[in-house]
Amino acid sequence: MKGSNMELNNFGSIMSFAAELEGADRAFYEVAAASPACGAYKDLMEAFARDEKKNEKNMLRARREHVTEMVLEPITDFTSEPFMSDREITPQMSLEQIMARALALEEKAQNFYSQAAEKTKGLAEISRVLAKTGKKRAAHKARLEEISKPG
Questions:
Q1: Which long-range contacts (CB under 8 A, 24 or more apart) does 117-125 make?
Q2: What does CATH list as the number for 11-148?
């Protein structure tokens, strides 16, 4: 995912960023699933990667189906910067480090979708798609928190 700050000032830029976010997070989970440190959670990481792939397709489809609304509804005070995450996984990383990174991804994704749904509430169908995806990401976060608890 590009490290630069992107203005999310219209429907098109929000949906493009959402698709990019899902693609980058899918790649993260694919690498995590292949990491020996995540061996016990390989199936979960693979499931999350599949979810992100579906989410990415949903974002691209929603953008395509609502292309006529792209220039309508200007959006202000919304950028990609608060939602950027470090997705690098190195062979030296422990399970705890990878899980911490995954939790950060899910937290930022959940925040993005919540704010994006609010910013696009004038486009009811888009707002609904964004909010639904945010709920899925919140469920991922809850699952990661559950397995990351000590003891």
A1: 119/8, 119/14, 119/75, 119/78, 120/11, 120/14, 120/73, 120/75, 122/73, 123/11, 123/66, 123/69, 123/72, 123/73, 125/62, 125/66
A2: 1.20.1260
